[in-house]
Amino acid sequence: MSIQAASRLPLKHLSLKNRRWGLIFSTSFLALILLAAVLAPLIAPYPPATVDLLRVNSGPTAQHWLGTDALGRDIFSRMIHGSRTALAGPAFVVLLSTILGLLCGLWAGWSGGRIDAVISRAFDIVLAFPALLLAILAVALFGKGLIAPVLAMSIAYTPYIGRLTRQLVATEKNRQYVSAYAVQGFSAPWIATRAVMPNVLGVVGSQTTQNFGYVLVELAALSFLGLGIQAPQADWGNMINEGQSALVSGNFLPALIPSVAVVLVVVAVNTVGGWLSDKLGDPFA
Amino acid sequence: MAQSNLAAATPPAPGAAKAPRQAATALKLAAGKIGAFLFTVFVSSVIVFFSRWLVPGDPINFLLRGRSPNPEAIAEVTAIYGLDRPPLEQYWNWITGVVQGDFGRSLQYRQDVTEVILGRLPVTLGLVVMAGVMIAILGLAAGIAASLLRGTFADRAIVASMSGLAAIPSFVGAIVLIAIFAVQLGLFPSFGSGNGFADMLYHLVLPSLALALSFIAVVGRVTRSAMVEQFAREHVEVARSRGITPVAVVIRHVLRNATGPILTVSGLLVAGLLVSSAIVEQAFGLAGLGSLLVSSVDRLDFPVVQAIVLIVVTAFVAINTLVDLLGPVIDPRLKAGEGAR
Amino acid sequence: MKILDIKELSIRVAAAAAPPLQLLEKVSMHIERGETVALVGESGSGKSLTARAVLGLLPSAAQVTGDIDLGGLAVLKASGAQLRAMRRGRAAMVFQDPRSSINPVRTLGAHLIEPMMQVPGANKAMLEARAVELLASMGLSNPEARMKQYPHELSGGMLQRVMIAGALMNDPELLICDESTTALDVTTQAAVIRLLSRAVSERSMGMLFITHDLALAASIADRTYVLRHGVLQEHGVTRQVFERPVSEYTQQLVAATPGMRSAPRSGSQPSGSAGAPVLSVENVSKTYQLRGQPPVRALKSVSLAIPAGGGLAIVGESGSGKSTLGRIVAGLEHADSGEITLAGGAITGGSARERRLKTASRVQMVFQDPYQSLDSRLTPAKALAAVLKLHYRLDAKAMRARIGQLLESVGLEERHANLYPRKLSGGQRQRVAIAKAMALNPRLLVLDEATSALDVSVQAQVLELVNKLRKDSGVAVLFISHDLAIVGEICDELLVVQDGAIVESGPTRAVLGNPQHPYTQTLLASVPRPRWETDPGAGTDPDPRHGDLEPARNNRS
């Protein structure tokens, strides 16, 4: 919807030169994080949960590049391990919600009429539940952890993709090229999947990358609230939560480092998404 | 000649006959929107209430999670929540109570949910309203300024800083604001909601700002893009071609026409605002609805969770219905039920 | 006395990392008081840019040299305040699309009085009275109530009258019309043109009339300038420019303009060839029921037949149901009642797929907008391959050969085969669309306004192509158009539709030469004709204030 359209806008106004560097930086940054997540146990200098009460809130040292937290755990190692859940959760949500949204949206937009009305109404009802709220409700029902919130958020994000797909498909359906295909004897399913879908995927793809950023933030927020990934396990969100108590005593790093990581990943994902949408959105126009 | 043969078809004459019909359509449209609102809230209440049944096992055990399942407790819970009744009757009892402002009993506080919620409401309201004011003033100002300066360096600077700002989640904003303004500069408190109204406002400055930051950016961007879109419209060029002063063009032809989209997006942002307030309350130790929700989840107090979820959903849908109802006032084309823009 | 004097106006725009674009090159023109001057040219000729330059509306990126003198004001050197005063008083402009020219969220009254309200000491009541008076003189009924209406409540033709009233609010000396009637139906266009001519003669204004339509220019202008790629090709008294054009470009343009070209180069075959009709439509009706709106009867018991190889034109204004008929014939929509029979009899039996393919091989359709009717992801070669693959089993070699042959048959070269549609011009795209249709060797080709989005010279070429295809392949043509001037060049039979019903039919020449139905007569009278052919001087022109606001219609669509 218009929010997404608006949040995509700024990228278009940065000059090409800036954009290219931004893109190179973003892609390499994301690749690095991905690598760290995959190879976490091999890269991390310390186990993420090893407590060292002699070296509490140490600040950056030769042994601990990013310092230690209030329990003396190595922040760098925890960041590396935390990147796993930080990426896996959103990836799953985005994948599931995109598949569901595309299917429902295509079905609604192409059929129109009663099917469209029912699906759209269902979308409206799901949209009445903000994603994070639905995730909290899921935690209240099924307990803390990653699985329940991720499933809940997959449902919550489905209508964003679904509505967009529905609207795009409904517009495309009335375009003359669709009539032109129909006149030539192509079947409706063929036109819907082979001609209309590719024209829709670009925009949906950019929405998907945007959603990745939102979901990442919301899952981090959930563990920041203490409702997501639980304490000994390293996760950016609960690292911020735990680091907050050190804040008052002037130790900013334990909370700030995971915060910066969240922001950087979101910016990088959006940069790549913006580029992707320009590439996929209308490659031939 | 031929022209005279053209029967003078009377164009749809405006006048007395048309006005009531238009009013009737407008009323019908409004009634439809309110009906949709009621339907959505109803279905949401069903979802919220029956979600409990998704959890496998005995509902008594679900409600008593984390508490000693002695026979007295079981009997008490069964009696309070009417668990021995069929599910539909349970729902009926609950929803009729809700409509009258009775959300049932809290397990953790052993008092009425409504009382608990009312005690927490002022802080959350203060937080959301203050943030809303900041978002409206700063977001609109930034967006309008950028659109007026479109294409210049200043525009790019505003847009770039807004994209940066938009990527800052409220918990990160809270951390940074606490670090700078509370810890380093000592200008504002970082914890608690204070005593008395003025003190509360003072305590709410940083939380509101933390909450508002990313929304300021989003509203700013939406305002800018809506304005820029209008600037490109032909009727704006026509207005210029008729010697209208630049200020009048901006106010009457650009800002006026951009109001609709800005308002629509702002309505959608309310969801994020309400939910993010929980995060900010947690970060600043404020005793609001959000922190109540979190602690209730934490302490397995499901009746309170149910109530807050339903309240947030209702508030969100209500505000968007309101925006929807305002639509025809802002854009007369919506009155006729025609597509806008 | 010269109202407008443009001297050697050049405009160029510096594009980033590209040579600056020269949009206008030393254009000089002038307009006298009481004179109507036409500026004609095809799309991209710079004619609209000239109009904007006169009002000082150029973007700041444009580099302008030369001189524009508007009644003593040096426009290019004037201050912002001077320019605004000039736009409020001396010169006014009417744009192409009235629907997008008026702010949709403000009332018409607010629109009309807005510029004059900017003048200190303006009297709102007096301005409103004047606006009402002007609306009435534009032939709008119930002008007081109109002041409170919003743009969406009026039809396009009525809105354009409001725009003209707004332009006349402060008695300008110069009125600029930029394609102001292009978006209107032909009868509405005729009425608006009469209003404009009358306003010019009553007020002794000057009028700059910008259009792509030479016939229209010939019907209204005293003098004409011809512009191409920013360079003036020719100017002079309108009759002289059109009857004895000097420049080669003007000659081509005149030759391509329907109604002006000397002889119709019809490739149509004599009708009445024996055998079963290629299409017969019997008592077809179609009603659209939109939610919350009264039903629209798009077609009311329409019957027609086209003999094998024949050509039938359907002419009507927007909303007449002509396009619906085309879509039904092509199988894109279904009639509520009535029979459609294509050559070869009814298609029954077989799977849905077989029926679909069989229908497609009998009837094909070419759509109006070549920018929308091609899939932007497919090159002509790929698009043709997709169609051929669906219908025929061809090996790679035969496929290539067939694609090459098809492209050649529509006048495209091999290098076009692998270009994406965005790299093709409108005419080339329409040729691709025709090639796609002809790939199935249909017996009937439905052309739905297939040439109306094209520049005149391209239009003539595409018409010529269709005639050639008819000759070569014997395909019958159902030609749907709003333009009476071109149907004679392609079809032997003509059908006039109004409000979903056929009002007149017969051989094209007979219908055009001796129309019987009043609606046909109106349509014909509305086709722009050179002034020197209509009787000058005689005051037979009926007062445009009376009647003919919109063609008679029972329902709007």
From TrEMBL, chain A:
<feature type="transmembrane region" description="Helical">
    <location>
        <begin position="252"/>
        <end position="276"/>
    </location>
</feature>
<feature type="transmembrane region" description="Helical">
    <location>
        <begin position="212"/>
        <end position="231"/>
    </location>
</feature>
<dbReference type="InterPro" id="IPR050366">
    <property type="entry name" value="BP-dependent_transpt_permease"/>
</dbReference>
<keyword id="KW-0813">Transport</keyword>
<comment type="similarity">
    <text>Belongs to the binding-protein-dependent transport system permease family.</text>
</comment>
<dbReference type="InterPro" id="IPR000515">
    <property type="entry name" value="MetI-like"/>
</dbReference>
<dbReference type="InterPro" id="IPR025966">
    <property type="entry name" value="OppC_N"/>
</dbReference>
<keyword id="KW-0472">Membrane</keyword>
<feature type="transmembrane region" description="Helical">
    <location>
        <begin position="122"/>
        <end position="140"/>
    </location>
</feature>
<feature type="transmembrane region" description="Helical">
    <location>
        <begin position="146"/>
        <end position="164"/>
    </location>
</feature>
<dbReference type="Pfam" id="PF00528">
    <property type="entry name" value="BPD_transp_1"/>
</dbReference>
<dbReference type="Pfam" id="PF12911">
    <property type="entry name" value="OppC_N"/>
</dbReference>
<protein>
    <submittedName>
        <fullName>ABC transporter permease</fullName>
    </submittedName>
</protein>
<keyword id="KW-1133">Transmembrane helix</keyword>
<keyword id="KW-0812">Transmembrane</keyword>
TrEMBL record, chain B:
<feature type="transmembrane region" description="Helical">
    <location>
        <begin position="34"/>
        <end position="55"/>
    </location>
</feature>
<dbReference type="InterPro" id="IPR045621">
    <property type="entry name" value="BPD_transp_1_N"/>
</dbReference>
<keyword id="KW-0812">Transmembrane</keyword>
<keyword id="KW-0472">Membrane</keyword>
<feature type="transmembrane region" description="Helical">
    <location>
        <begin position="304"/>
        <end position="326"/>
    </location>
</feature>
<feature type="domain" description="ABC transmembrane type-1">
    <location>
        <begin position="121"/>
        <end position="323"/>
    </location>
</feature>
<keyword id="KW-1003">Cell membrane</keyword>
<protein>
    <submittedName>
        <fullName>ABC transporter permease</fullName>
    </submittedName>
</protein>
<feature type="transmembrane region" description="Helical">
    <location>
        <begin position="262"/>
        <end position="284"/>
    </location>
</feature>
<keyword id="KW-0813">Transport</keyword>
<dbReference type="Pfam" id="PF00528">
    <property type="entry name" value="BPD_transp_1"/>
</dbReference>
<dbReference type="InterPro" id="IPR035906">
    <property type="entry name" value="MetI-like_sf"/>
</dbReference>
<keyword id="KW-1133">Transmembrane helix</keyword>
<feature type="transmembrane region" description="Helical">
    <location>
        <begin position="123"/>
        <end position="146"/>
    </location>
</feature>
<comment type="similarity">
    <text>Belongs to the binding-protein-dependent transport system permease family.</text>
</comment>
UniProtKB/TrEMBL annotation, chain C:
<dbReference type="GO" id="GO:0005524">
    <property type="term" value="F:ATP binding"/>
</dbReference>
<dbReference type="InterPro" id="IPR013563">
    <property type="entry name" value="Oligopep_ABC_C"/>
</dbReference>
<keyword id="KW-0813">Transport</keyword>
<dbReference type="InterPro" id="IPR003439">
    <property type="entry name" value="ABC_transporter-like_ATP-bd"/>
</dbReference>
<keyword id="KW-0547">Nucleotide-binding</keyword>
<feature type="domain" description="ABC transporter">
    <location>
        <begin position="1"/>
        <end position="254"/>
    </location>
</feature>
<comment type="similarity">
    <text>Belongs to the ABC transporter superfamily.</text>
</comment>
<dbReference type="Pfam" id="PF00005">
    <property type="entry name" value="ABC_tran"/>
</dbReference>
<dbReference type="InterPro" id="IPR017871">
    <property type="entry name" value="ABC_transporter-like_CS"/>
</dbReference>
<dbReference type="InterPro" id="IPR050319">
    <property type="entry name" value="ABC_transp_ATP-bind"/>
</dbReference>
<dbReference type="InterPro" id="IPR027417">
    <property type="entry name" value="P-loop_NTPase"/>
</dbReference>
<keyword id="KW-0067">ATP-binding</keyword>
<feature type="domain" description="ABC transporter">
    <location>
        <begin position="279"/>
        <end position="524"/>
    </location>
</feature>
<feature type="region of interest" description="Disordered">
    <location>
        <begin position="525"/>
        <end position="557"/>
    </location>
</feature>
<feature type="compositionally biased region" description="Basic and acidic residues">
    <location>
        <begin position="542"/>
        <end position="557"/>
    </location>
</feature>
